[in-house]
Amino acid sequence: MLQIHEIQCQYESDIVVDKVSFHVNDGDICSLLGPSGCGKTTILRAIAGFQPLTHGQVILRDQCLSQPGKLVDPEQRNIGMVFQDYALFPHLSVKDNIRFGLRKQSSAQQNSTVKRLLELVQLEDIGHRYPHELSGGQQQRVALARALAPSPDLLLLDEPFSNLDAELRKRLSLEVRDILKELKISAILVTHDQQEAFAFSDQIGLLHGGQLQQWDTPFNLYHEPSNRTVADFIGEGCFIPGVIGGEANTISTELGTLIGNRAYHWPQGSPVEVLLRPDDIVLSELGGITATVEKKVFSGSATLYTLSLPTGSRVEALLPSHRDYAIKETVQITTEADHLIAFSREEVLHGAA
């Protein structure tokens, strides 16, 4: 439905988005994830028509919307947009804010659409109010309804939940996802919040330094990172040194011989760095490696421990919180890693993956 083909954007002489490509299917909900300044909002602006391209193309339903020297006006793209600050018209009521993009429809059609959308976003009783009379969550629902009113092919959301408190942010993002799925509208969310992207998205694109590092499902980003940059950014975890063993799927480490779910392409004896997630480290009933508790973060049902190994390496372990281990206490651990991720140590040292 949407094709982003090797787009490049720059401000004056600075390239801020460099040869980024991905595609969005009908009904897919996607996210652009990354730290501040990585280029994700610039990509959103390029799709919306607010940012020209110096290379590449933006194609929506087989129509080229942007390429160098060509920029279809934003209002001609049939793309809706929800902004971080909601951008509601303060002098218009909730109903009239939603009605704003429906001026080409008859009055009866407008009234029908507004009524349907107010019911959809659960604001049917406050259509007469003005933005300053609404809570942040209500304003966000109005902004969503206004963007959906013209039945866009694609909805763009630029960190729309960032001004809300944590609990409302989580609940509203899931409600918005349900609404988009019900309407079968494709969407792209810009966020720096991993958990929000994981809960909201079918596909996620991780950006770093203006380049797309990986476009994949949340599951694959976490369990199958394509390079060290993705592995460092997504989730939690630690790297420990290892050496490729005699079998192509084994790695010898200070935690013992780890068996991966793939055949590694490096020859036997190659030095590697192994990524271990907190859920890969478990307590050992019999034997195991002795580790010392250095830090702990309690989160209710589980506690995240930072553990020091005898060599000085560190790993993280997410353990049930019914047993409270003290700082400097020792525990016996082993590994249960279904997805064993490794990177060449030489490549890591040279900043590649």
Automatic annotation (TrEMBL):
Gene Ontology BP annotations: quaternary ammonium group transport
Listed SMART domains: AAA (SM00382)
Keywords for the protein's UniProt record, in alphabetical order: ATP-binding, Cell membrane, Ion transport, Iron, Iron transport, Membrane, Nucleotide-binding, Transport
Entries under PROSITE patterns matching the protein: ABC_TRANSPORTER_1, ABC_TRANSPORTER_2
Cross-referenced InterPro entries: AAA+_ATPase, ABC_SmlMolc_Importer, ABC_transporter-like_ATP-bd, ABC_transporter-like_CS, ABC_transpr_FbpC, Mo/tungstate-bd_C_term_dom, P-loop_NTPase, Transp-assoc_OB_typ2
Pfam families in alphabetical order: ABC_tran (PF00005), TOBE_2 (PF08402)
GO molecular function: ABC-type ferric iron transporter activity; ATP binding; ATP hydrolysis activity
SUPFAM superfamilies: MOP-like (SSF50331), P-loop containing nucleoside triphosphate hydrolases (SSF52540)
Keyword Phosphoprotein assigned: no
Protein name: ABC transporter ATP-binding protein
UniProt organism field: Zhongshania marina
Organism placement in taxonomy: Bacteria, Pseudomonadati, Pseudomonadota, Gammaproteobacteria, Cellvibrionales
